[in-house]
Amino acid sequence: MQRMLIIALAGLAALAATGCGTNSSTGLDKITLDPDLIPEKIEEASDQYVLGGAAKFNVTIANRGGASSRAFKVRAYGVYYFSQPLICGATSIPVAVTETVDGLLSNDAIGLEMTLSLPPNYTPPSTGYTGCDVDPEYDGSWEIQVDVDFNDDVRESDETNNTLSYGFVATASASGGGGTDLVEKLAN
């Protein structure tokens, strides 16, 4: 009897490892032992964000699947969307950073500090600058987006939940690159 139970459990584990489902006519759900990597939380790690400076965020990445994962990459990128096109035709400024996670056990999580280097406060187009300028009506609204396993290196039970976004404000510096305090800016 014990031998039959061991054989049955070994067969069930082999079936689950292949990603094959059970017979749908029995009403049993698909059995999977794949990881499910997700960005669970994004929190601000800086008191202020200024163009030309660093924007630090604490990001929690979790594996909510039924198996451990192998190594994967996490990308965080910030985007400012302009209210009008730039001289060079762009409608956004993206900045990005990538981290490698060596793997996560099932039902485990890891915290990463991810730092985006924000572009400097460019001169508005009205002054004759010929490059990609920041919108002269810059309102400071940025968005950070975190993508987990963006290269699809890990087969997951759910590949649709790998992205999380968070909005933040980066102030423009009057000096053209850092130094304006967010609290002072909001107080005026």
Question: Which terms summarize this structure?
Answer:
188 residues; mainly beta; Immunoglobulin-like; 4-stranded antiparallel sheet; 3-stranded antiparallel sheet; 2 helices; disordered C terminus
The percentage helix is 10-25%
Overall average pLDDT: 73
Main β sheet profile: 4 strands, antiparallel
Structural class: mainly beta
- Beta content comes to 25-35%
Distance between the termini: 79 Å
Count of distinct structural domains: 2
Provide the CATH top-level class of the largest domain. Answer: Mainly Beta
Radius of gyration: 23 Å
Describe, in plain words, how this protein is organized in 3D.
It is a single chain. The chain is mainly beta. It folds into two domains: 33 residues; 154 residues, Immunoglobulins (Immunoglobulin-like), CATH 2.60.40.10. 12% of the residues lie in helices and 34% in strands. It contains two helices and seven strands. The protein is elongated.
The gist of it:
With 188 residues, the chain is mainly β.
Give the secondary structure arrangement, pairings included.
Blueprint (H helix, E strand, L loop, with lengths): L1 H17 L18 E8 L9 E10 L8 E10 L10 E10 L6 E10 L23 E8 L14 E7 L12 H6 L1
Antiparallel strand pairs: 1-2, 2-5, 3-4, 3-6, 6-7
